[in-house]
Amino acid sequence: MTQLILPHTSVERPTVPRFSLQLFKWIGNKQRFAHEIISHFPDHFERYFEPFLGSGAVLGTLGPSRAVASDALEPLMGIWRMLAERPDDLLDSYSTRYRAFSKDRQVAYKRILASFNRHPNPEDLFFLSRSCYGGVVRFRKDGHMSTPIGVHVPVNPESMRHRIGVWRKRTRGTSFFLCDFEESMSKAGPGDLIYCDPPYFHTQSILYGAQGFDLDRLFRAITEAKKRGAFIALSIDGRKKSGTVECGISLPPRLFTRTVHVNCGRSMLRRFQMAGMTLESEVVADRLLLTY
How do residues 74-116 score in pLDDT, each as one tens digit? Predict the structure, then answer.
């Protein structure tokens, strides 16, 4: 783990437009509606914290001048560190795998997947996220990725070069850390903003079996950060089955001030599970819980 040493600076939340240029795919990605989430952020805040970074959709859309982004999955954070420190190596590794994939997609995918499962690393994960079925990066309980190959063609190296350049600019004010969410959140102080997008309690435990997650521990970390004067926004299970089913989660009393429902469109997980079927009844909505 890297020790967090964080500077302070005050930023003003701009009115941000949609930003649809995904760097890599990840389950629960907020790219399509990150701008809507950001519209509910405070008008002014100090540093921006995102302790469940994933594919960083909200971070990339916001483009804050000072941010602390972290996750507990080492190869995932390796992608972000390469973006910040070695973008040419990130592109070269993607291009090498893309060329092999273009020659024999089945053989190349199996080889890259086996390489990742032998030794989890950012280079393999970066390409796998772009070439696996539905972009659903699914881990078994033993930590192995189990998603089969997708039917689509991954973005080509020139497109990836453009994406890496854009994302590097949008995250140039961000410090990336490999650490547990509680460690990251403990550094947030008065006026800082924390956006939490943890694994969904009702759906994603089957996808991230290798990553233990305790919702009660998150609520305790939010409580402590709130006491220190930080603002917290939490995306969590809301409604599924096109709003006919409310995902029941017991919330600590008086921790959150208000709730906003954010339309997430059709479920990415159900699209993976119901290949070839229509998903009109599988529209879901997040709850965005706010402490301010």
Answer: 999 999 999 999 999 999 999 999 999 999 999 999 999 999 9
How many angstroms separate the CA atoms of 131 and 59, rounded? 23
Supply the pTM of this predicted model. Answer: 0.84
Q: What tokens were used for 95?
A: 């291009």
Using the predicted structure, report yes or no on whether residue 7 has a pLDDT greater than 90. Answer: no
Distance set, CA 204 to CA 62, 139, 237, 275 (Å): 25, 10, 10, 18
Q: Is 144 helix (H, G, I), strand (E, B) or coil?
A: coil
* Complete domains list, the chain, with CATH: 11-73+170-290 (3.40.50.150), 81-160 (1.10.1020.10)
Q: What DSSP line would sit under 178-193, residue for residue?
A: E--HHHHHTT--TT-E
Residue 86, token pair as written in the block: 């070695």
CA distance readout (Å), 251 to 37, 200, 245:
20, 14, 18
- Give residue 116's identity as a one-letter amino acid code: F
